[in-house]
Amino acid sequence: MEKHPLLRELQSKHDFPEADFQSLLDLFEERYYKKGEIIFRAGEIVKYAFFILQGCFRQFYINAEGTESTIYIMEEGRWIGEMSSLINETPTNMSLQALEDCKVLAITKPKWEYAIRNIPEYSLYHIKNHYRMIAWLKEQLGRAVTEKPDDIYRRLLKDSPHLLQRLPQYEIAKYLGVTPETLSRIRKRNLTL
């Protein structure tokens, strides 16, 4: 029998015992989002943390001029949301949108806190994963200020080529911080590499 995707994730980062998994899974609820649906907007207090079972999401900012900047794109087997807003019950400054029809496991703040207090291995997983995520976000931030759109596109080609097939070109353009026309030029330049 194939392992549940959430159990696979927990065990990939920590020695999470299968015996504790069902009691953790019972704290989550399955939720479904349609392609294009906004799950939360900047200024709102986030009500759930999400583990993606199916689909793809983008988290983004909107600047003062109204331009959207995609910060990251997450797919199956990853967490997404805004934990600071969830835990501290403060408004987020980002928005979250489903890029496809999506299925997630969602957990509320009270159930997340219950899990942290009562399932020690989940708490240890979160501590370990938190530091991995901080390192990943620092790397993303560094790339955002040092990489040009061509560099980001080449990295996408190398690390996540399926995203270039999976997502519409205008979403890839938003992620690169360019117009769709500029993305076309970037793609042409990189065909010769």
Question: How would the blueprint of this fold be written?
Answer:
Blueprint: H1 5-13, H2 21-25, E1 29-33, E2 38-40, E3 48-54, E4 57-62, E5 68-74, E6 79-80, H3 83-88, E7 95-98, E8 102-108, H4 109-118, H5 120-146, H6 149-159, H7 161-166, H8 169-176, H9 180-191
Antiparallel strand pairs: 1-8, 2-7, 3-6, 3-8, 4-5, 4-7
CATH superfamily of the domain at 5-118: Jelly Rolls
The CATH topology of the domain at 5-118 is: Jelly Rolls
Poorly predicted tracts of residues: none
Tally of strands: 8
- What profile does the largest beta sheet have? 4 strands, antiparallel
Helix content: 40-55%
CATH class value of the domain at 5-118 = Mainly Beta
What do these coordinates show?
- The structure is a single chain.
- The protein has 193 residues and is of the alpha+beta class.
- It has a domain of 114 residues: Jelly Rolls, CATH 2.60.120.
- 49% of the residues lie in helices and 21% in strands.
- It has nine helices and eight strands.
- The strands form two sheets. The chain has a four-stranded antiparallel beta sheet.
- Strand 4 and strand 5 form a beta hairpin.
- Helix 4 packs across helix 5 and helix 6 packs across helix 9.
- The longest helix has 27 residues.
- The protein is globular, with a radius of gyration of 18 Å.
Entry keywords:
9 helices, alpha+beta, Jelly Rolls, 193 residues, single chain, 21% strand, globular, 4-stranded antiparallel β-sheet
Short description:
The protein has 193 residues and is α+β, with helices and mostly antiparallel strands.
